[in-house]
Each structure stands twice: as C-alpha cells, then as structure tokens.
Amino acid sequence: MEHNKKITRAGGVSLPVSLRREYGIEPGEKVNVSVNAAGVIELKRIEGSCLFCHSDEELKLYEGRHICRKCRAAIGGL
Q1: Residue 27's domain is classified under what CATH number?
Q2: Residue 78: which pLDDT band, with cuts at 50, 70 and 90?
Q3: What is the number of structural domains in the chain?
Q4: What b/e string do you get for 16-31 counting C-beta neighbours within 10 Å, with b at 16 or more?
Q5: Are residues 6 and 32 both part of a single domain?
Q6: Residue 17: which domain range?
Q7: Digit-coded pLDDT (tens) for 17-67
Q8: I want to staple 66 with a disulfide (CB 3.0 to 4.6 A). Which of 6, 26, 59, 60 is the partner?
Q9: Strand ranges (DSSP E) for 4-58?
C-alpha cells in the first residue's frame, strides 16, 4: 500500500484514514519518528518514554511516570 502526501508548512504529514483504520491508530497516540541508516523515515507507536533515559522499550508506570526496565534495575528494581 502506498500513499503520496504533502508536508504542511508546519512540517506535519497526515496519515490516510485507510491506514489509520487498518492499524487501529487513534487521534492523540504518540509516535517516535526516526531515520534509519538507509534514509527511510520510520514511525513507531509508543506509550511514552522513560523519565530518565527516554527509551520507549519495556516501560512500566511508577507513580504516573514511565520507567524502562534498565532504569528500574539501576535504581533498585521498582
């Protein structure tokens, strides 16, 4: 599936409704935007990021804040 989109003046790109519906992407969801070694722009859904290292992997909530597994281990296994 391929979609051609324009980038807005503010730098935004909207995702086509068919893509959002197919993957269950809801308004307000957070995504990480990165560029891989081949120069391809990638979007990755995230719940949030670690309070300390900003990782988006293996997150758990602690008092309303996301903390990743590595940082939990470093501060005593919360």
Answers
A1: 2.10.260.10
A2: low
A3: 2
A4: eeeeeeeeeeeeeeee
A5: yes
A6: 1-46
A7: 998 898 888 888 788 899 999 999 998 887 778 889 988 888 888 887 889
A8: 59
A9: 30-35, 41-46
